[in-house]
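job 3f2a | input accepted
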Amino acid sequence: MPVDFTPFAALGDLLYGPSVVERYLAVGSFIEAQPETVLPVTRAIIMGGKQLTPRQSVEGARRIASLRATCLRALDAVDVLVTPTIPGPQTIAEDAADPRGVNDRNGIYTRFVNYLGCPVLSVPVSFRTDGLPFGVSLVGRSGHDRSLAPLANKLHALSQAGMGRQRHPVPALPELTAPSQGARVAVVGAHMQGLALNGQLLELGARYVKTTRTAPEYRFYVLPGTQPERPGLVRVHSEGAAIEVEVWDMSWAALGALMGKVPAPLAIGTLSLEGGESVKGFLCESYAAQCARDVSALGGFRNYLKSKTQ
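job 3f2a | predicted structure (310 res):
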């Protein structure tokens, strides 16, 4: 199915905008002290971060977050995104004359993955009539790096492009198989997208799947004394409510690593979602509810946070 590439291109363009501030903060003082040690084109890009105002940086960060969410939703609708690897081949002379421009053009179809945490794999597939090579890039979902290898292997073999300009035959490779789906995990609080602990999921290669609700079998509490503020989900025998959750995919190894970061009285258990699906997810030991505020009527953590600003 076709995918609108506009938000992906816009996201990639920001790599040389607000993100340059981070590069300047990291190595700017070194370049200022020893400018001759850095290639001119690299120096010009990084030092450009010094010119951005705090407002531009904040606006850029918000733009990145918005485009990132749009792109991830688009990737959720497909198994893999296929693009050209580069718009077209560049000569050495063209690169020498305009290294920044050549680099910008060559990254159009791939640089956006820096913001998405997604794997991308380039595959040679053909040669043009002038003898120059042509390839495609396969962009997968976050945390599913190895799932691209079987597809790339088959695509390379079917293309008969061979290896290198001489098109040497591709040696027989062992059959590559994608890993199992792993664990599906529901989060109910600060691990949700855009909130304080979401980075823990992203660092573990977790991939957002959907926003849904639990079965109406839970009470939802705000736990006192937690920083960042955290909620607790407790299963009850009666008078339960349906609570908003985000469902994420991750490997079992990643889930094990996440469990090591979960402090008492929270724990990872099995949640029931509306519709009957069971997933792993955050639960709270019932004793903690005795001194916690019941916010079940608000239906979820995001609604609770909004209620604090009203």
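job 3f2a | The mean pLDDT is 88.
job 3f2a | closed
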